[in-house]
Amino acid sequence: MSVLVIFLSATSATLGVAALLGRRRLRDAAPAALRVGLAVMFLVTGLSHFAGLREDLVAMVPPGLPRPELLVTVTGVLELAGAVGLLVPRTAAWAAGGLGLLMVLMFPANVHAATAGLTLGGEPATALLPRAAMQLLYVASAAVVVVTHWRRAVLSDALGQFIAVLPRAHGPAAEPPDASATDVVLVSRLRLRSARHVPGFLLVSLRLRRAVRRAPGAVWLELAAQPLTGTFWTWSRWTDEDAMRRYTRSELHAHVMRSYRPRLRESAFRPLPAAQAPTTWPEVREVLRTTTRTVSGR
To answer: How far apart are CA 120 and CA 128, in angstroms?
Structure first.
């Protein structure tokens, strides 16, 4: 029962610190608090495999398993390694998964201790039903850590790389077979401060895209978006620089830029002669990556 107290105390203390700092909502702080609670718990139980309770733990090994002392040593090392791994974000999911599996494999020892009337630290071993409930709590907590970190580290990264590219919108100007000496290409990147602004900005971006169809001197425009990072790119071609500037200074375009300026983390624009312009979206993003960025302030 003391192990449960250690786990709950460490978890609650971590949640309390997060609440005092005010940096995380409860649903965001809970997985981190569980990591800390499990880490402290396994640090204590891992050390007990080598001092204090070692003889009692050796006695808990079910009959028939070979070399009980070696098994206690190995599981103690694994618990200590898992405790350290839980505190490192990069290895937390692996550590939690390994410790969850270890708890399942070690549960027969708890069954043996409860049914054989063994003692632990001079006190009777916890009865089987309460012990099973506690073990389920620990395994479920480890599962929460695994799922949370897997979603953030794997799923979010994968989705975060997803870029949606809308079909090309053609303007009134016919696209010449070869780049004209006066043609100009404009590429841009706009990065929002928060994902909550993405739906609204997507709607106004579609309005700007439709406006290109009627803009004098517009040849075509393509729009790409990476919703989970709040990043938008445009890639457009114009018959000359004056036509491009008339569009960017139009009432609609100017209104959108003014309205969203406080919501932008950064923006980057680069006009290029059509003959020197990028020809693929990866090239567009590379051009903008090396372009001086204008960071918007509040």
So the answer is: 14
How many domains does the chain contain in total?
2
Task: Give me the domain span that covers residue 130.
Answer: 2-159
In 3D space, the residue among 96, 10, 99 whose CA is nearest the CA of residue 46 turns out to be 99
Q: What is the CATH number of the domain that holds 175?
A: 3.30.70.100
Nearest Cα to Cα of residue 3 among 87, 92, 79: 79
What pTM was estimated for this model as a whole? 0.54
pLDDT digits (tens, 9 = 90+) for 215-248: 999 999 999 998 878 899 999 999 999 999 999 9
Structural domain contains residue 66: yes
| Confidence (pLDDT) at 21 | 65
Contact 184, 173 (CB under 8 A): no
